[in-house]
């Protein structure tokens, strides 16, 4: 784990919480984006908790540069598996959208309950994605027209969606509506393991890094629409 926040007290609090868990360990702390890039160049971390508003280099730019490193890393290497969860005290659409566009796999508010934060870290580490429930649907509904405009310029996304099987498309739509794997399994009367298999195939066909990216593609291509 890496913690990036310009407030020492915040980092200390998160560090104590995370290190209290037997399966989690903080290996890097940094006070801004530039420090984070330097520290993560020397030490490996699976998940980064990244503040948004910081002096020098903010969390959005740091996330973007970290994701460039991830894209350039050899497949299967530790660096290629790095994931970022962006944390902020501001429940504002533009921060969430900027974080997603920069490549974050999660977006959470700093006042989230401790168990929610810990669950988010584990979820992102598994390769899934997390966005604050209060933000998810409002954000995507708000930016859907822009995403669809961008999607019209990316025919590869439409082609990828067209390659999904009928069942994969069903799962894809439910994913885009914010349903969890257990909820999808219950709705389709299949096992959770079957849903996980479908999700893996969907991400591979779409060339999507995680569920957040897949949901953005669903809005881009019009598979789901605001309020739909």
Automatic annotation (TrEMBL):
Keywords for this protein: DNA-binding, Phosphoprotein, Transcription, Transcription regulation
Domain HTH luxR-type: 157-222
Keyword Aminoacyl-tRNA synthetase: no
Any one GO BP annotation for this protein: phosphorelay signal transduction system
Residues with the 4-aspartylphosphate modification: 51
Gene Ontology MF terms in the entry: DNA binding
InterPro entries (UniProt xref): CheY-like_superfamily (IPR011006), NreC/VraR/RcsB-like_REC (IPR058245), Sig_transdc_resp-reg_C-effctor (IPR016032), Sig_transdc_resp-reg_receiver (IPR001789), Tscrpt_reg_LuxR_C (IPR000792), WalR-like (IPR039420)
Superkingdom in the source lineage: Bacteria
UniProt entry tagged with the keyword Amino-acid biosynthesis: no
Domain Response regulatory: 1-125
Family matches, as PANTHER family: TRANSCRIPTIONAL REGULATORY PROTEIN NARL-RELATED (PTHR43214:SF24), TWO-COMPONENT RESPONSE REGULATOR (PTHR43214)
The protein's name: LuxR family transcriptional regulator
Taxonomic lineage from the root: Bacteria, Bacillati, Actinomycetota, Actinomycetes, Micrococcales
């Amino acid at each position: 784990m890496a913690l990036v926040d310009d407030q020492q007290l915040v980092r200390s609090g998160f560090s104590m919480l995370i290190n209290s868990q037997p399966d989690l360990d903080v290996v890097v702390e940094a006070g801004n984006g530039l420090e984070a890039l330097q520290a993560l160049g020397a030490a490996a971390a699976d998940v980064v908790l990244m503040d948004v508003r910081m002096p020098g280099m903010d969390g959005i730019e740091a996330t973007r540069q970290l994701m460039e490193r991830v894209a350039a890393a050899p497949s299967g290497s530790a660096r290629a598996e790095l994931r970022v969860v962006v944390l902020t005290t501001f429940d504002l659409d533009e921060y969430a959208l900027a974080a997603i566009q920069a490549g974050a796999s999660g977006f959470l508010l700093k006042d989230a309950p401790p168990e929610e934060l810990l669950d988010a870290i584990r979820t992102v580490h598994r390769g899934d994605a997390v966005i604050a429930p209060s933000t998810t649907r409002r954000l995507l509904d708000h930016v859907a027209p822009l995403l669809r405009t961008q999607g019209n310029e990316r025919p590869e996304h439409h082609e990828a969606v067209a390659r999904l099987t009928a069942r994969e498309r069903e799962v894809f739509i439910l994913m885009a509506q914010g349903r969890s794997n257990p909820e999808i399994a219950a709705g389709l009367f299949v096992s959770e393991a079957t849903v996980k298999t479908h999700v893996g195939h969907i991400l591979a066909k779409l060339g999507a890094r995680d569920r957040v990216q897949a949901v953005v593609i669903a809005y881009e291509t019009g598979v789901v629409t605001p309020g739909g």
